[in-house]
Amino acid sequence: MKTITILSGKGGVGKSSITASLAVLLARKYKIVTADCDVDTPNLGLLFGIKNFKNLKKVSTNYKAFVNKKVKKCPNVKKLSDVCTFFAISWNEKMNIPIINRFLCEGCGACKLLCPEGIELKRVKNAVIGQTKTKYGFYIVFGQLKVGESGSGNIVEIIKERTRKIAENVKADFIIIDSSAGIGCPVIASIRDSDFVIAVTEPTPSALRDLKRALKVVEHFKIPYGVIINKYDLNKKFTKKIENFANNHGIPIFGKLPYDKSFVESIVNLMPVVVYDKRFERLFLSILNNVKNNLDKIYNKNL
């Protein structure tokens, strides 16, 4: 079983749309399980036509600080706002007690070190996770962080753990992870333990810059990777620049996708573009074939 993570340094380049189409085509030949690890804005399920996940489970991966009645006896009580790096603690003159803003609190525990008797650290339910089977015959696992909460990387780890269990039960050949954009905690958690990474970019200066940053993170984990250029025909001159960058660094380009309104229409109709518009099947199958050939070379066997 191999885990393939699909990421993009920049948001809005079509990563989830591409992931959905690759997953549907891959599932025609192999057993797969997908995971939406963009825990701030999980949209992969929508592209499979899933509007609501059933049997959602609340999970806790973070702590919050709370003030109790003993806080007034703390000799350092008025210094609490100074020790909080996240500016989550303010002083209420009228009540003569510190107030903790739960949206700013990161649960680091610095305040409890200062006032161990007056501050309590409690676990909070900061996210939900769920799973369902798509109409294309494979499972998708997703998670979503609650508004204003932290701990995105930890939520990704929980999603991956559940995905692996499902994959083992169905004897899956591949796990496909749709990561969030950027290089933050959820991306790092998504990449870790992956066998291969596909990076999606587009022909713009910001996308290329962010691609380079994302690839440095992938290289840190020593994971092999390749690139897909989406909307390549919007700026063919800059597409050539991306190709030159890839060639100079020995990075395989698995394929180039054109800008086409069918991509937008497919999203509106809650389906992968290869299902909505059959013209794209051959192009995506070519990309999958390039990915598989690359994996075969890396792992020295026919997957």
Write the layout of secondary structure elements.
Elements: E1 2-8, H1 15-27, E2 32-36, H2 44-47, E3 57-59, E4 62-67, H3 80-83, E5 89-92, E6 97-100, H4 110-114, E7 119-124, E8 127-133, E9 139-145, H5 152-170, E10 174-181, H6 185-191, E11 196-201, H7 205-220, E12 225-230, H8 236-248, E13 253-257, H9 261-268, H10 273-276, H11 281-299
Parallel strand pairs: 1-10, 1-11, 2-9, 2-10, 11-12, 12-13
Antiparallel strand pairs: 3-8, 4-7, 5-6, 8-9
Briefly say what this structure is.
The chain contains eleven helices and 13 strands.
The shape, in one word, is elongated
Helical residue percent band: 25-40%
Instruction: Find the CATH superfamily of the largest domain.
Output: P-loop containing nucleotide triphosphate hydrolases
Output the strand order for the largest sheet. Answer: 3-8-9-2-10-1-11-12-13
Task: Give a quick account of the main beta sheet: strands, pairing sense, barrel closure.
Answer: 9 strands, mixed
Q: What is the count of DSSP helices, taking H or I runs of 4+ residues?
A: 11
CATH class of the largest domain: Alpha Beta
